[in-house]
Write a structure and sequence with these properties.
- This protein is of the alpha/beta class.
- It has 2 domains: about 90 residues, no CATH class; about 150 residues, Nucleotidyltransferase, domain 5 (2-Layer Sandwich).
- The protein has 10 helices and 6 strands; from the N terminus they run αααααββββαβαβααα.
- Strands 1, 2, 3, 4, 5 and 6 form a 6-stranded mixed beta sheet that branches.
- Strand 3 and strand 4 form a beta hairpin.
- Helix 1 packs across helix 2, helix 2 packs across helix 10 and helix 4 crosses helix 10.
- The longest helix has 25 residues.
- The protein starts with a helix and ends in a 13-residue tail after the last helix.
């Protein structure tokens, strides 16, 4: 895991180049009229949003109280929790941009795994009363049952480093989100998925782009013959579930206290940034060493 100083230096180096472009785009879009000096720099906001997920605090409010009590002197100014929370949501786009800069660059002739995990925003009994994400969330079904919320789609490499990520509504099928996920950061080589990615159309579409989609088949379908190497990596596909568990259990990517779409997106991508900074990850055993 990055220490706090190394993490902030990494974010600050990114913001030195990114901030002028980002502020100019906000002015051109009419979001802001002028660039005023803020109490917290953009790099400090991204740092706080990421550090929260590495701190093992359960709520952002208690984390900000901790930082304000023990580390207030490390900031030139430290606003209230409400203001910091609003600023983090306001600059969700910058958090996404930093995550994209941290992504592991795809390389040819490699092994990749694709999967999705649900991000529940409320219990099923409260769906009719839920208002925050009524226009964006959807009902979906995972291996553990029905849920209401969103899906996080991931492509990871053999080192379980995130190569591409995409957030969709919960009612979007995995195979439907596969090509948009692939287009964000195309990979070349072999892409292993579960039965939710069975599609002759997408298999042919990816093969044109030098990516071989490999999945198991259903019981009523003819069984393909896998090579020993493909069978080895197919058996290790479930390691991507370890990535999902680490995001949910250790980094707190999923909770039901969101009050806005921008706050939700900022929270999700800050969690993904924290995961990229974690040094202890699952490892897929290379073929011949199992």
């Amino acid at each position: 895991m990055y220490d706090h100083t190394e993490l902030f230096c990494l974010i600050d180096d990114f913001c030195i180049r990114f901030k002028p472009i980002y502020l100019n785009s906000l002015k051109e879009a009419g979001v802001i009229q002028r660039c005023r000096n803020a109490f917290l720099e953009l790099s400090e906001l991204i740092f706080l949003a990421t550090w929260f997920h590495l701190s093992h605090f359960k709520t952002f409010k208690h984390f900000i109280a901790f930082v304000g009590f023990y580390h207030r002197n490390d900031f030139k100014a430290f606003p209230s929790y409400q203001r910091i929370n609003a600023l983090v949501a306001q600059h969700a786009t910058a958090i996404i941009a930093f995550f994209e800069a941290l992504l592991t660059k795809p390389k040819s002739d490699h092994i990749y795994f694709v999967d999705s995990t649900p991000l529940t925003v409320c219990k099923n009994t409260r769906i009719n009363r839920h208002r925050t994400f009524r226009a964006t969330a959807g009902r979906g079904k995972s291996s553990t049952g029905w849920f209401y919320g969103f899906k996080l789609h991931l492509i990871v490499n053999r080192a379980c480093e995130i190569v591409s990520a995409l957030v969709t509504a919960g009612n979007v099928a995995d195979v439907t989100a596969l090509f948009p996920l692939f287009q964000r950061h195309p990979v070349q080589g072999k892409l292993f998925g579960d039965r939710g990615y069975i599609s002759k159309f997408y298999k042919e579409l990816l093969s044109v782009r030098e990516c071989d989609l490999i999945t198991r088949t259903r019981a009523n379908m003819s069984q393909p013959s896998f090579s020993e190497e493909d069978e080895h990596y197919m058996c290790q596909h479930n390691l991507i579930e370890t990535v999902n568990s680490q995001l949910k259990d250790d980094l707190g990517i999923e909770h039901s206290r969101h009050r806005s779409w921008r706050g939700f997106i900022a929270h999700v991508y800050a969690s993904l940034i924290a995961y990229q900074c974690v040094t202890i990850k699952a490892q897929v055993k290379p073929f011949g060493q199992a």
